[in-house]
Structure formats: structure tokens, C-alpha cells
Amino acid sequence: MSRPQQGRSSQRRRNGQNKSNRTPKHDIWREPEPLPPLEPITVSRDATALLRSLGEPPMNGAIEAGYTFGSVVERAAGIATALALSADLLATPAD
Predict the structure, then answer these.
(1) Is 82:74 a contact under the CB 8 Å cutoff?
(2) Which pTM was predicted?
(3) What is the number of structural domains in the chain?
(4) 73 lies in which domain range?
């Protein structure tokens, strides 16, 4: 009994895949495009609206988890507002 030579056929398959999967080279050190102008950031009146629209988390202690998730979202919104204020990007209220 003769054994088929697996090394050559797998090598051919790999070479064929390498030719078809080549990606074009990109110059990572090129000058980047200019950034778009910054738009003013408005403060959300209810930062947890999206979270509440998903309903209660499907887990034990869902009500407590919902409060915890809500407090994390509110804290993140507060930090984002402070960063926007420090960068002078906070939108003025139209009221």
C-alpha cells in the first residue's frame, strides 16, 4: 500500500489561498485627512431612557441591577458633560 503525499496537496491549497486573500498595502505613516468641524454637544435630559426602553434585565435581582445600571449610565453622562464643558463644546440652551 502506498500512502498519498498529503504535504504537497496541502501546500498547494495554502499557496492558492494566499494569492486570493492578499490585501493591498497601505501606508500607515501617511498624513491623515483633516478632522471634520466639531459640533456642540447637548446634554441629555434623561440619560437612562434607552436603558429603560430595553426593560428589566433577565436575571435574578433585576430591579436592583436596573438601578445599578442606571446609576452607571447617569455617572457616565455626567462625566461626558463635564468633558464637553471643559473643551468648550457644550451647546447653549435655546430656551
Answers:
(1) no
(2) 0.59
(3) 1
(4) 39-95
